[in-house]
Amino acid sequence: MKENKPQSTSKNNPSFQKKVWIVVGILAFSIITILLLKATFRVFLLILAGALIAIFFRGLSSFIQKKTKWKEGICVAISIISTFLIVIGLFWLIGAKVQDQMAELVETLPKTVENAKAKLNESSIGRNIVDNFSSVDSIEKAQGFAGQFFQSTFGFFGDLYVVLFIGIFFTISPKIYINGLVQLIPIKGQEAGKQVLNNISNQLLNWLKGTFFSMFVVFVLTAIGLAIIGIPLWLVLALLAGLISFIPNFGPLIALIPAVLIGLLQSPETALLVVGLYILIQFIESNFITTLVQKKLLDLPPALIIIAQLIMGTLTGIWGLVLATPIIVILIVLVQDLYIKNRE
């Protein structure tokens, strides 16, 4: 009579061991991928910033070509050169005044902070605020946060150099990079991939148009308002407000701080006028300018933008805060084109 052989355990089963190794391999690959993304995510943000510059140059060259019927290469060259000439011209025209006011601002701010402390120390609530913000623990936390928030991949000027040249290279020969990216997609989906990339480019171009228009309006209104109030550094403060308004939600708050401090140097009433001016400009920008711009844009939920800014700013610092909105635009286009339009 034949004895029953004991059944092989799962540990001795080759197929089971193979499955275990597959799971371990997938887990290891996932961890390595996450670590690589975390280490290189700031580089991807710089690439995105360069792509935005290229989209701007290409959009401007398309406008020039549409009006003049000139060749594409000539229009691209004109768009790049004219943009640099305009920027250099503006700095040449107002650069000296801005430089003088910036130097005065740097010299005045410490006195202004001390003046603000003196005003706050006149009340018990103000003294508590000053004590809390002046404590060693609060200062160390603020320095640590600022150091992490303003850190960059290659240094500030190194980042600008990288972004600028990436943008120029993308502008000169975009088809090389687009075709290379499309080649990574399976053949059946390459045509759809091209359409998605084209849609992303169009939406980002529309977003840039609206953002630059909003920045210009904020600069003009701030300059007029501060000049009427009589703030001595009105030009540099208005320029700062216009540039920082590129960052929605948090930009106006950042720009308000130096303006209020300069207002406090004159009087508390002047500081309150500055606060009222910035609130009025933010109201006009949010309810009229943004509403006008959004007609040509995707519907971007404000809460979603704030959440993205908080997450990106915490993880990657200033670049994440600046580029949170275009990242949301890209994600919304991807979800709409790849999922919502194709679901049954």
UniProtKB/TrEMBL annotation:
Subcellular localization: Membrane
TM stretches of this protein: 20-37, 43-61, 73-94, 160-178, 212-237, 243-265, 272-293, 305-335
GO cellular component, one term: membrane
UniProt keyword terms in alphabetical order: Membrane, Transmembrane, Transmembrane helix
Topological type in the membrane: Multi-pass membrane protein
This protein's record includes keyword Endoplasmic reticulum: no
One protein family per Pfam: AI-2E_transport
GO biological process, one term: transmembrane transport
Record InterPro entries: AI-2E-like
Superkingdom per UniProt: Bacteria
Family recorded in the similarity comment: Belongs to the autoinducer-2 exporter (AI-2E) (TC 2.A.86) family.
Protein name, UniProt field: Conserved hypothetical membrane protein (UPF0118)
Source lineage: Bacteria, Pseudomonadati, Bacteroidota, Flavobacteriia, Flavobacteriales
